[in-house]
């Protein structure tokens, strides 16, 4: 279609360009004027007002979705002669654009993207969320290779037919995006054939798609010798004779001793460490809020960065000391569930070991100065109590962001990197990681503007390396304070005095 534009507003959204239209709705590229960000607006056509209840039911279903790879719903408006909702404009290009431009992916990359798509749909299945059909135009990949999906959830109950529909369609449409002639291309074509039901009595399910993609990624990341089998399931090799094993073990022992002696004689210098930046003072003033209003706030100091792995490790050491006197629950929030066993983050042993050795965790390089992740709201509240601080409210967090920042959406999101690294994800006040790195817990529940009649829920704020979204303007709502994710951390706030 030929896009048209109108110089008119829907609420606080300035319509820029009509992107698509169907008998029920129009989809606009728009600007949310209060925060200067580009969004998409789906407007119920005025002549379809009798479908308003069904339209709003679908919007409520979309707003209930919580997944870092799915586009967010920002706000829904239901007024006389006006019904629309605003949602995230996902960055990057769609897979449909790449198909049209004949830009296929190497098999290892396509396997990764397909695995992430399977991850999303496994959650839809677990939660029973119905979805409209998935197409290549609903799948976006940005310049950093991060995949995001349009929010296709609709009101109703999920059926097995929706799973089969999407798997078969992707099995057909993704064939054009396999870079033939590269390692793994035959395996990818085989998997896509299975997704279409080729050679099978019925198409495979999302869990099988996920498992096969993992196998392909692992095989291509650690390629087998030319004579080895490239089937998905690899049989173990025959055991070598015991004498051969003894000889190999002896050689390995000699090698280990030699390396140990060498390292003792030539110790590696430890990496240089720089002091972490101090908390930033935000003076008392009236500041804009994330919902477009203004609020007068008292002066406060906010962490210049998310709490790091090393800082959190010191907190855990304190709890271990208190445990000797059975006082390890001293800093717990008064409403913390009694069944919560500890404040140990998810996979803490592996994360902390990788950070101390400047290694990798979950395929990401980490150091002791990397933000801690895998923590829930209760962990953040307990750490803050230990530091005589508190978690920030979303209003405090947003006020700190907007201090001397006219357009917060212009901040370049950072990857999950040490807070002392040079990064453009930094405000003039010196706040680091507001647009990217990891998203953050806030202190108080709030109403989701997309569901103004719903209950107050806990707010996760800021972009993350897994879900940049609208960068520093990203918000998510959850009723689960025990939620933990590999891209979720926190920072703290102190009184000004």
- Residue ranges: pLDDT <50 for 5 or more in a row? 226-240, 256-271
Percentage of residues in strands: 15-25%
- Helix/strand/pairing category: alpha+beta
- How many separate structural domains? 3
Oligomeric description of these chains = single chain
Counted beta strands: 22
Largest sheet: 6 strands, antiparallel
Characterise this structure.
The protein is an alpha+beta fold. It folds into three domains: 9-88, Phosphorylase Kinase, domain 1 (2-Layer Sandwich), CATH 3.30.200; 93-221, Orthogonal Bundle (Transferase(Phosphotransferase), domain 1); 280-495, paralog of FGE (formylglycine-generating enzyme). The protein contains eleven helices and 22 strands. It has a six-stranded antiparallel β-sheet with strand order 1-2-3-4-6-5, with helices on one face. It has a four-stranded mixed β-sheet with strand order 20-19-18-21. Strand 1 and strand 2 form a beta hairpin. Helix 3 (107-127) runs antiparallel to helix 6 and helix 4 runs antiparallel to helix 5 (185-195). The chain is globular and about 65 Å long. 37% of the residues are buried. The model is unreliable at 226-240 and 256-271 (pLDDT under 50).
Please describe the structure with a list of short key phrases separated by commas or semicolons.
about 500 residues, alpha+beta, Phosphorylase Kinase, domain 1, Transferase(Phosphotransferase), domain 1, paralog of FGE (formylglycine-generating enzyme), 3 domains, 6-stranded antiparallel β-sheet, 4-stranded mixed β-sheet, 11 helices
